[in-house]
Write a structure and sequence with these properties.
Keywords: Hydrolase, Signal. The protein has 3 helices and 29 strands. The chain has 453 residues and is mainly beta. An 8-stranded antiparallel β-sheet has the order 14-24-23-27-28-29-26-25. Strands 1, 2, 6, 7, 9, 10 and 12 form a 7-stranded antiparallel β-sheet that branches. It has a 6-stranded antiparallel β-sheet with strand order 3-4-5-13-8-11, with no helix packed on it. The two termini are 40 Å apart.
């Protein structure tokens, strides 16, 4: 028996960990917050004071009212404070802003005629910050939902999204916007909270204080709810009431992806339907039926997921290339249909390609006519053949027919001798929807075997 060298074993382990870390995909977007505060003070007889910076600012200024013959009146005085603080996570920002100012006018007398003179003091404070969303240039064009909620002690604050004022003079703001992100692009949200005071003469004083809070949350938009990326329906498909174990994955109230029942509480779908949506799992549900508007079919809550993410197992989903685009969702309750049978490799893919065997592609979605959703939530099916075999996926290009990415996670069925077997999962395609890609289920038999519930 040979005893392995300990140092060699440790080196191999370190290299494996290093490879796994290096293989980790970069995030699709990052969030940057840049505070910018400034205050400006003016009082009689002294130079103005102006401060600007990213940290909290605070200053005061005393005027120089000097009477010519004897002391009289008071000196002008002003002060201001501005501060912007933020808390940032990988998908949200909480921004708190405060600004305050105080002004007190002054007075003095000259000897000539013993005349009295009023003086003024003025202060302005501005607390602001720019929140920038930077989108990774290596990721494809994608839609995101940006939720923005803002509250202010008055209606003085501004909220500009790429130059458009979302506050419009309101002290309470709530918006949920769909944002289309081009690769390498950025979006800016500018928040500003100004305060100004002014007072003149020996009487009175003026003070003002403002505070505001802005919460921003960004999340990927449901795939089937996106109009900018794709035509979210099977091109050339027709409505079907068959394939009972094919259902729709919902994100909130929106269509998201398609999936197939693989076990009592297991749904087979594409990894890109899950990757980037992990923190939205509580909003995810599964619904069977041929029409999502049919009340006879209830939503079943999704409670967990799994996807290839460890290169040590030989499988690791890449959200950029869509390599190993396969995932499982787990439901809270049993699903009331017969689970799908999976292709084990017989007949093999070379035979299917050479003989141009038609596969049946199934998915939910809608047509888009004059920018309106038509037939939303209808299960559709279409048939064509694949023409190329890759590592763990197959590709096809059939004129007039394509999944066009819209039915992500849906099945490709092989129907032979009255038997239906799922052979692939809808993964992606080119931007022109002329070529589509499917993940082969037979290539993941070992990975799937121990994960079905």
């Amino acid at each position: 028996m040979t005893v392995p060298n300990l140092a060699s074993s440790m080196l191999v382990a370190l290299l494996a960990v290093s490879a796994s870390v290096q293989a980790a995909a970069p995030p699709p977007f990052t969030i940057e917050v840049l505070p910018d505060n400034d205050i400006s003070l003016q009082a009689f007889g002294v130079l103005p004071k102006v401060l600007q910076g990213a940290t909290e600012l605070s200053a005061n200024l005393l005027g120089d009212e000097s009477s010519g013959c004897f002391e009289y009146g008071r000196k002008s005085y002003t002060s201001a404070q501005a501060n912007a603080q933020s808390s940032v996570t990988d998908s949200s920002v909480t921004l708190s802003l405060t600004s305050s100012s105080f002004s007190r006018g002054g007075s003095y007398r000259t000897c000539l005629g013993v005349l009295g003179h009023d003086t003024s003091a003025q202060a302005s404070a501005r607390s602001s910050a720019t929140i920038t969303l930077h989108f990774n240039p290596d990721y494809p064009k994608a839609d995101y939902i940006v939720d923005i909620a803002g509250t202010s002690s008055n209606n003085a604050f501004k909220l500009l999204l790429d130059g458009t004022d979302l506050a419009q003079g309101k002290a309470l703001v709530s918006h949920s916007l769909t944002l289309t992100a081009e690769p390498g692009s950025s979006t800016q949200l500018f928040v500003e909270l100004p305060t100004t005071t002014r007072n003149e003469g020996e009487c009175c004083e003026q003070r003002a204080g403002n505070s505001a809070r802005v919460d921003v949350r960004i999340r990927k938009a449901p795939i089937l709810a996106s109009k900018s990326l794709l035509k979210p329906y099977i091109v050339g498909g027709k409505q079907t009431h068959a394939y009972k174990n094919v259902g729709a994955i919902m994100l909130g109230e929106s269509l998201h992806c398609t999936g197939t029942v693989l076990g009592k509480r297991t749904i087979l779908t594409a990894a890109h339907c899950i990757s980037g949506y992990e923190k939205q799992l509580t909003d995810m549900a599964f619904k069977l039926g041929s029409n999502l508007h049919d009340p006879a079919f209830a939503r079943v809550k999704v409670i967990d997921f799994d996807l290839p993410r460890d290169s040590a197992t030989g499988y690791s989903f890449n959200p950029i290339t869509l390599e190993d685009d396969i995932a499982l969702l787990y439901t809270q309750e049993d699903l009331s249909v017969t689970p799908v049978r999976l292709h084990s490799g017989n007949p093999n893919w070379e035979q299917l390609v050479d003989q141009r065997v038609s596969l049946t592609f199934v998915g939910f979605g809608f047509d888009v006519v004059d920018n309106d959703k038509v037939g939303e939530g209808i299960k559709r099916a279409a048939s064509w053949w694949v023409d190329d075999i890759e590592n763990r996926r197959v590709a096809f290009s059939v004129k007039g027919k394509n999944t066009c990415k819209g039915d992500s996670g849906g099945p490709a069925f092989l129907i032979e001798n009255s038997s239906i077997v799922q052979v692939a999962i809808t993964s992606g395609g080119d931007d022109a929807c002329k070529r589509g890609y499917e993940t082969r289920v037979d290539a993941f038999q070992g990975w799937l075997a121990s994960r079905v519930r």
